[in-house]
């Protein structure tokens, strides 16, 4: 008699548990079925980006040494004593980087030449090589990404990024449009001195 009573209590408990939990399980199943499985928005699909993999760097190919007739001068600031230009032939744009040869000329006639890249997305620049007096490239000893001080209007990288290369955190335009704006000093900003970049 006792065994039969225990059996009946067990059956009743199972029925009560099923009646209580079935709606909850059905709701959860419905939510899971409604979750979109499109592209990388669905975490768990094979096309989800593996952030553990190192990002592949854009291969560096040093351009020809700059020629005087290819230099395009640009304005930096009223207190900058050097004149700066980029070699129009060297300007190239990639997915997230702009590369160019920068030429700096001092009032005393000294010349500094470097091959550089800038990234608008994080406002950084990298110097890949320096030009020597023999007209050859020498790999830079500080070949690392460095922050561009966008408040420093005396820095040529700041002038290029703020006025010609970058629209916010994205690349502003095509190579041809950039060169046109540089040639005719058509800044992306209404004020060349605008520091709200």
Brief synopsis:
This protein has 197 residues and is of the alpha+beta class. 26% of the residues lie in helices and 23% in strands. The strands form two sheets. Strands 1, 2, 3, 4, 5, 6, 7 and 8 form an eight-stranded antiparallel β-sheet that branches. Strands 9-10 form a two-stranded antiparallel sheet.
What do you see in this structure?
The structure is a single chain. With about 200 residues, the protein is of the alpha+beta class. Strands 1, 2, 3, 4, 5, 6, 7 and 8 form an eight-stranded antiparallel β-sheet that branches. A two-stranded antiparallel sheet has the order 9-10. A hairpin with a 5-residue loop joins strand 6 and strand 7. It is globular, with a radius of gyration of 31 Å.
Helix-strand blueprint:
Elements lengths: L1 H33 L36 E4 L8 E5 L4 E2 L4 E8 L5 E9 L4 E8 L5 E3 L6 E2 L8 H10 E2 L2 E2 L3 H9 L14
Antiparallel strand pairs: 1-2, 2-4, 3-4, 4-5, 5-6, 6-7, 6-8, 9-10
Highlighted features:
8-stranded antiparallel sheet, single chain, 3 helices, 10 strands, 197 residues
């Amino acid at each position: 008699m006792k065994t039969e009573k225990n059996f009946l209590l067990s059956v009743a408990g199972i029925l009560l548990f099923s009646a209580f939990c079935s709606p909850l399980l059905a709701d959860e199943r419905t939510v899971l079925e409604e979750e979109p499985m499109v592209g990388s928005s669905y975490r768990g699909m094979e096309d989800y980006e593996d952030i553990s993999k190192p990002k592949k760097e854009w291969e560096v190919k040093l351009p020809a040494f700059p020629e005087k007739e290819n230099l395009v001068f640009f304005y930096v600031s009223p207190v900058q004593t050097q004149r700066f230009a980029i070699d129009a032939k060297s300007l190239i744009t990639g997915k997230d980087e702009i590369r160019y040869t920068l030429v700096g000329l001092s009032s005393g006639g000294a010349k500094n030449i470097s091959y550089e890249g800038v990234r608008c997305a994080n406002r950084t620049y990298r110097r890949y090589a320096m030009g020597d007096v023999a007209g050859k490239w020498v790999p830079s000893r500080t070949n690392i990404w460095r922050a561009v001080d966008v408040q420093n209007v005396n820095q040529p990288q700041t002038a290029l990024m703020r006025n010609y290369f970058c629209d916010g955190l994205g690349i502003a335009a095509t190579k041809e449009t950039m060169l046109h704006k540089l040639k005719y000093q058509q800044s992306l900003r209404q004020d060349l001195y605008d520091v709200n970049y």
